[in-house]
Design brief:
The protein has helices spanning about 1-10, 50-60, 65-90, 90-100, 105-185, 185-200, 205-215, 220-240, 245-270. The chain is an all-alpha fold. The protein has 2 domains: about 1-10 and about 35-100; about 110-190 and about 205-270, no CATH class.
């Protein structure tokens, strides 16, 4: 800095020309020294030397010739070189250690690359295992849904069979009651013979149907008729929900139709 100030003092000697007759007191005053160039101006990422010098000389607040500016820049470069040399000398041991650490770095990079490749293979294996397990879980969930659907279907078929049997029992009991009223036979004795006939199985279903057609629920109350009609509607709805393509449902529909015809015959006889 002492050399820089001395240079500035040499380049800017006091002027012997008077500025005006009224400023004789400032006649011997030297020209203002230009401020030192800030180091931050050279650290900009978009620094351009030509643009910087052009803007520097067009500024009205800076009075400096090109030779003075060149001298200042050379002094600044020398100062930076001295600082860099001092930095290297003060950290010489560290620089030597850095060189030793960098020696053999290619082998270390190769080791890291090999480790990364091994890690990549492990990740790919884990991804493959996860994909296989995901497929297994998907298939298991599909099977579980199928089992759930089959269970629901079985419950519906069981309910359908139960309702059909209940409707058949109501129709059989009603026809038996009508037959007792028509024939005037003792209730208990006729009841025993009736249930013996019912225990003979499905082979005698047609005979039972004929008996029901002949009896016809004569004298049945409207409440009983409404109960039978509701049961029949529920059975039809349940059969439709299960699907008419099932053999069990078709079989139940045949039984439903047979007893529906019996019910129609009974209503006609009551009229």
């Amino acid at each position: 800095m002492t050399t820089l100030n001395a240079s500035r003092q040499r380049n800017y000697a006091p002027s012997s020309r008077a500025s005006s007759p009224h400023s004789s007191s400032n006649e011997d005053a030297p020209l203002p020294f230009p401020t030192a160039l800030p180091r931050s101006d050279f650290l900009s990422p978009t620094f351009d030397a030509a643009t910087y010098l052009s803007n520097l000389h067009t500024a009205s607040s800076r009075h400096q010739s090109l030779s003075d500016l060149r001298t200042e820049l050379r002094e600044r470069s020398a100062a930076i070189s001295a600082e860099l040399l001092e930095l290297v000398n003060s950290n010489y041991a560290s620089f030597l250690g850095l060189g030793d650490e960098l020696r053999g770095g290619a082998d270390k990079v190769g080791d890291v690359r090999v480790a990364l490749l091994g890690y990549k293979r492990q990740v790919e294996e884990v991804k493959r295992a996860v994909g296989e397990r995901r497929e297994e879980v998907r298939m298991t969930v599909g099977e579980l849904r199928g089992v759930g659907g089959a269970v629901e279907l079985g419950r519906g078929m069981e309910e359908l069979g139960t309702r059909v049997e209940l409707l058949e029992k109501k129709l059989v009991v009603g026809s038996y009651a009508g037959r007792v009223k028509q024939d005037g036979v003792d209730g208990k004795a006729e009841d025993d013979g009736f249930w013996e006939e019912e225990g003979s199985g499905e082979e005698e279903g047609e005979d039972v149907e004929g008996q029901e057609d002949e009896a016809g629920f004569v004298g049945s109350s409207p409440a009983k008729l409404g109960s039978l009609a509701r049961d029949y509607v529920l059975i039809e709805r349940l059969a439709d929900s299960l699907g008419t393509d099932l053999p069990f449902v078709r079989k139940m529909e045949e039984r439903i139709m047979r007893y529906a015809e019996t019910e129609a015959t009974r209503v006609l006889k009551e009229k």
